Amino acid sequence: MFFPRNVSRIAIIAWICFFSMFVIAEEKAALDLDERRAFGYLEQICKLGPRPSASEGMTKQQDLIVEHFTKLGAKVSFQEFDTPHPKKGTPVRMRNVIVSWHPQAKERVLLCCHYDTRPFPDQDPYRPKGTFLGANDGASGVALFMELAHSLPHLKPTFGVDFVLFDGEEFIFQRDGGKYFLGSEYFAKQYRERPPAHRYVCGVLVDMIGDKTLTIRQEPNSVKHAPGVVRSVFETARSLGIKEFIARPMDREINDDHIPLNEIAKIPTADLIDFDYPPWHTTKDKPSECSGASLVKVGRVLLTWLQNVPAEVGR
Question: What is the model's pTM?
């Protein structure tokens, strides 16, 4: 930085202070999350229609995801595998999406969600074979990550960050029975059996976090497997005054994509989920039941947490 020789020290100091304030304000603006934009992403995803694994809607969603995250500076890759169709037995191509920020970091934090939708709204009492858009159960996590992507290039996290979008979370064609968590199980086994050059210190799974009346309590399996992650995330929410995070246990255990991550990959991972959602697995799970404000509240907690992840959470 060059200043003319006749400029006073006071003027130089004043200019530096002004410039520093400008940079800080610019960085703060980059980390601000936008409710309307986040909700717009959720609507955009739902306009693609149902998005079961290997469907036309899923392919369109994958194109959307790659374009969005690449444009914002992330490294995007697919982790592909085949699984038998639950009814036909023919191979179905599954694709986990890995979105990497600060890819040079060898110690990383995993933020994940599932991005497939259930083939049918089998809990709908009137139309169990109707159209299932999965606005909250499927699109909300993706929309949140799309919104967070505006901030991640400007973030100075403790660790590198990967978004992982799991396929095949519920490629189920019957109400009872069937195999869940196909994408997260494959990811966990690959991490265990073919260790990458990096290590995941810990992880957070988000699922159904777009509900208008958001309430997130501590999920018991998460407390069991990843107590440090749960404690630090909920402490972050408390410090931000986000009252939708309630530091008390849920009244039920949730089996979700965090189970393979904890039990197979040994990545301490907490599940942030609002399971008190009446439109669950029905035709009513539409954008009108969701809120950009809810997405942003979860996003604010995660952005703040990423900048202060305690080193001991993965020990």
Answer: 0.90
